[in-house]
Specification:
- The chain is elongated and about 100 Å long.
- The chain has 20 helices and two strands.
- The protein is mostly helical.
- Among the domains are: 70 residues, Multidrug-efflux Transporter Regulator, Chain: A, Domain 2 (Orthogonal Bundle), CATH 1.10.1660.10; 104 residues.
- Keywords: DNA-binding.
- This is MerR family transcriptional regulator.
- Pfam families: HEAT_2, MerR_1.
Length: 335
């Protein structure tokens, strides 16, 4: 049969048959003297096999592999198809939930629906670029109306740049997404709690600060650290031991030292915090890298005790500590 006959009988377009020939999935057994494609009965049978496999959701590459490789496992293939179908069903359920949320947002005009739906689809896209563009495409009103799905997108996001864009959009909702973020704090997955803590850190309301303060006792150290960096500068003294431990353990020590300084200044406890840092420094043996970080932390604590300690450290046995203390004293006295 010529290509037109095959197309008419199979329902597969001539264009698609030519594409199959080009990529090698289905090449006709012969050609006429005029170079027309001639398909045998076996070719037609293979075509129906191709279309049957494609109807299951296989890509053309998978179809080719299944037809050419005698050891290609149908069971493995079916398992992958089942997983893929389950994922698509989950996406459809997700879209249904999003549509209900658009309805909850009470759109007044078709233009509102037409505007909001692409943003929702973008948030649930498999492409991080599309998710990012969706976040950047929201105005303040969009973000507020889509606060919950936006929060859910933040909690699910693993790509760093996209996560930043989503949090940027979420900040524009104020406390509209607070409920979704607070619910995530009970999640058994520490990664979800970390994302929730990061998002809450961008909110400056009393409710967000209270939630972050509660996270200072979270079993996951990364959650505690994120919370401490956020609420320390807001004056939560409960963050002090976490921040000090971060300096000692070399975990975002510069940020932790700055947060300690801001905490002490906010509460008027600069000398008290300085004495705690000095006591911890004195317990560390020479050569312990934590001593250098603790010495540098003293520079974030203006006042007599911190300056006196730095002057004393200019004669420290550890040359790195001594050099750092000399430099920091010089800076402090110039000021």
């Amino acid at each position: 049969m010529l290509i037109g006959d095959v197309a008419q009988r199979s329902g597969v377009s001539v264009r698609m048959l030519r594409h199959y020939d080009k990529i090698g999935v289905l090449r006709p057994s012969a050609r006429t003297t005029g170079d027309y494609r001639v398909y045998s009965d076996g070719d037609v049978e293979r075509l129906f096999q191709i279309e049957s496999l494609r109807s299951l959701g296989l890509s053309l590459a998978e179809v080719a592999a299944a037809l050419e490789d005698s050891e290609y496992s149908p069971a493995d293939l079916l398992d992958r198809l089942i997983v893929g179908t389950e994922e698509r069903l989950a996406e459809e359920e997700n879209l249904l939930r999003r549509l209900r949320e658009v309805r909850t947002a009470d759109p007044q005009r078709w233009a509102d629906v037409v505007h909001l739906l692409p943003l929702l689809r973008g948030l649930q896209s498999a492409s991080p670029v599309r998710r990012q563009l969706s976040a950047f495409g929201m105005n303040d009103d969009d973000a507020s109306r889509l606060a919950r799905p936006l929060a859910e997108a933040v909690l699910a996001e693993s790509e760093t740049n996209t996560a930043g864009a989503l949090r940027w959009a979420l900040r524009r909702t104020g406390d509209a997404a607070l409920g979704a973020l607070l619910s995530a704090l009970d999640d058994t997955d520490p990664v979800v709690r970390r994302r929730a803590a990061q998002a809450l850190a961008d909110l400056e309301s009393e409710a967000a600060t209270a939630a972050l303060t509660a996270l200072l006792d979270d079993p996951d150290p990364a959650v505690r650290q994120r919370a401490a960096l956020a609420v320390g500068p807001r004056g939560s003294d409960a963050a002090r031991p976490v921040l000090l431990r971060m300096v000692i353990d070399d975990v975002a020590d510069v940020e932790a030292a700055e947060a300690l300084g801001a905490l002490a200044a906010h509460r008027g406890t600069v000398d008290e915090v300085a004495e705690q840092v000095i006591a911890e420094l004195d317990r560390r043996p020479v050569g312990d890298g934590a001593r250098l970080r603790l010495a540098q932390t003293l520079a974030e604590l203006p006042g007599a005790p911190a300056l006196a300690a730095l002057r004393r450290l200019r004669e420290d046995e550890d040359p790195n500590v001594a050099r750092s203390a000399t430099y920091l004293v010089r800076l402090a006295t110039r000021a």
